[in-house]
Amino acid sequence: MNPLPGSHLCSSVQYLAKISSAVGLLDVELIFYLYSRPEPKTLVGLIFKRLLEMKRTSRRDALKQLALTPLALGSASPLLSACENMEQVHKLKSNINHSVCQWTFNFLPLDELCQVVKKIGFNAIDLIAPKDWPTLQKYGIYSSMCYIAGKVSLTEGFNDKKFHPQLIKDYEEVIPLVAKAGYKNVICFSGSRNGMDDETGWKNCVDGIKQFIGLAEKNKVMVQMELLNSKVNHKDYMCDKTPWGVELVKRIGSPNFKLLYDIYHMQIDEGDVIRTIKDNKEYIGHYHTGGVPGRNIIDESQELYYPAIMKAILETGFTDYVAQEFLPLGNNNDEKIAQLKKAVKICDV
After folding, report:
1. What is the total count of domains within the chain?
2. Are 17 and 28 spatial neighbours (Cβ–Cβ below 8 Å)?
3. Residue 282, CA distances (Å) to 55, 311, 325 in order
């Protein structure tokens, strides 16, 4: 592909968009920017051509490589510097509703995380209690999975009847609040086994959850029990396999009770992620991500191939949220935020 004529600015936005798509590196904003610079257009044309040749690398890497070439001499330097400092805009495809779990980025104040989310291009945060909903609302961010207002415990759950009185009270209080705020998901947990057999756990969970599931139906709120691994992170957790959770959903028998399928956790405890998702699509209402092993960034450094998993999720007709729940690594906050942006892009199929 030849560079655009250096003597004048292209007047066709459609043509620029076509080039941008073909290149896969430059976006329309950068093309316009290149041609609006005061440097000689022949030089801008050479820079554009060089970027085309490096279309398989990221724009930042390409600019760094370009800076090492003779093209960076003379009047090109200010242009290269300005281009490198531009924020890359990646428009999300809107096939996946993206979110992020607040606790994994709790090194940022919630206000700042809201701004980060908006800058990346999505509008939801998971695992937020009622006290923090006003902060999300201030930035137009959706609470895609809500906590109850009281104590949140993964170990003291519905499988043990001694916790029922407080849990039932908490859910009866929060469900109308979730609905009033315009949200629809609230999380719950099975609790630890403590030597309990499956049948007793199912029966106790059903007895407790059925006390308020009618209220959830009335308010159009989904109550979702999370599947967690008991091998590495949550020893003795009862709802640690998809079949156990599916059986519970069947016994409760409400369209407003489903499973939060955590891809990280279920890869550890059972594997076979894509087949499991497809076979149990009607029982799953929400997803969390995470790299295996380590629960870090979901890129090529870990064993799961998330683009294929996301495509499988889409093929089931899923329309709720997929929330990033990995622990970012980095020397500073900027590097950790960059990993969130990368993870969202990986899942944006």
Report:
1. 2
2. yes
3. 41, 17, 23
**What is the domain range of residue 23?**
13-85
Dihedral sign for Cα atoms in the order 267, 270, 274, 276: negative
229-267: pLDDT as tens digits: 999 999 999 999 999 999 999 999 999 999 999 999 999
Q: What is the DSSP string of 290-341?
A: --TTTS---STTSS--HHHHHHHHHHTT--SEEEE------SSHHHHHHHHH
Same domain? 181 vs 323: yes
Q: Angle at Cα 109 formed by Cα 106 and Cα 110, nearest 5°?
A: 85
Rounded Cα–Cα distance for residues 39 and 202 (Å)? 71
* Cα dihedral sign, 319-101-149-154: positive
Neighbours of 219 (CB within 10 A): 15
What is the C-alpha separation between 321 and 127, in angstroms, rounded? 12
Tell how strand 222-226 and strand 97-101 pair up.
Answer: unpaired
Neighbour count for residue 135 (Cβ, 10 Å): 17
For the stretch 177-193, pLDDT in tens is 999 999 999 999 999 99
Q: Look up residue 213 and give its amino acid.
A: I
C-alpha 210: how far from its chain's center? 30
Which pTM does this prediction carry? 0.77
* DSSP summary character for residue 185: E
Neighbours of 222 (CB within 10 A): 22
d(CA 214, CA 107) in angstroms, rounded, equals: 38
213/268 same-domain check: yes
Q: d(Cα 294, Cα 289) in Å, to the nearest integer? A: 12
Give yes or no: residues 183 and 77 share one domain.
no
